[in-house]
Please model this.
Amino acid sequence: ELQFPDEVYESIQEYREERQASDS
Model:
């Protein structure tokens, strides 16, 4: 199981949201 720092996790969340927004 990977452990991410809060900064990295937040960046991933933003990235996923952008991907979903552009996907639909």
The chain is about 75% helix and 0% strand. The two ends are 30 Å apart (CA to CA). Helices lie at 6-23. The mean pLDDT is 88.
